[in-house]
Amino acid sequence: MPLNIPQLILQFIENQTETRTMLLPFHYPKKEEWEEFQSGFRYHGLSGEDLTSTKEGEWQPGWYVIALNEMDDPFFIDLNEEASGFPVYYALHGAGRWDAIDLGFDIVSLGYFLEKMEKAGKDKIACLQLVELSTDIQNPFWLELHTTIQEWDDEEAESTEIDPALLRYGKLVVTDAGPNKVKVAKYLMKIWDIGPQEALVRLTQQDVLVANGFLLHLQKHIDNLQQLGATVAWSDLPM
To answer: Does 92 share its domain with 171?
Structure first.
């Protein structure tokens, strides 16, 4: 584990860029969490056993996770490839082996792409154009992203007018974490700015408060939590 995180990587993880699709990076390590963030990839989270290996399908010694999407799939770089600007790779979590997909971006250009996707929000046409113009659509990861965006509801994605109903002020609560409790906890820990264990403890309570605010700002969390299998409820509050 290097003592100093290379500046290009540090800048990427500190930007914390989020988009409106669960497939792209969502959860980033903080500088002080860099080593902990490698748990389950470079080493076993309980035993500390080294999980790296030069064998095909294993986690390679130079690989370090720089972000996870909302399905806990890792985006990673190889520290040995600094001269190439740290090309970014993706792999499917839970497949029984690690098959790295080269995303065709170095870490800086991926950061620029994510910023553009963040600005595009839920504009379906803009997001599709960004993927088509910026990526190799034959790449399995980008093809999946493109297909996912195509399936967005057109009315929701292209609407530019704010629905007055979204200007309601209230509270969002989780009434049931559902079958993916760990993933829900990982999602909420970033909102609450707490650790994963504390988030799991909170989810044992009834009607767990996610946040207070305008529905306009919290709708993203409602959608994402429901996609993760959680049951949520909204209650209006007086302003």
So the answer is: no
Amino acid at 64: Y
Per-residue pLDDT tens over the stretch 134-189: 999 899 999 999 999 988 875 444 444 556 777 788 899 999 999 999 989 888 88
Residue with tokens 């960004």: 130
- Assess contact for 186 and 195: CB atoms under 8 A: no
DSSP H stretches of helix in 40-192: 107-120, 124-134, 140-150, 154-158, 181-192
Domain containing residue 228: CATH number: 3.30.1390.10
65 in any annotated domain: yes
231 forms bridges with which residues in the sheet? 176
Q: Are 36 and 45 in contact (CB under 8 A)?
A: no
- Residue 108: count of CB within 10 angstroms of its CB: 14
Same domain membership, residue 83 and residue 20: yes
Q: Could you say which residues of the chain have pLDDT below 70?
A: 1-3, 154-163, 239
Alpha-carbon span 157 to 169, nearest angstrom: 23
Of 89, 118, 147, at which residue does a domain stop?
118
| pLDDT given for residue 219 in this prediction | 85
CA dist., res. 103 & res. 29, Å (int) = 20
Its domain, for residue 35, covers: 7-118
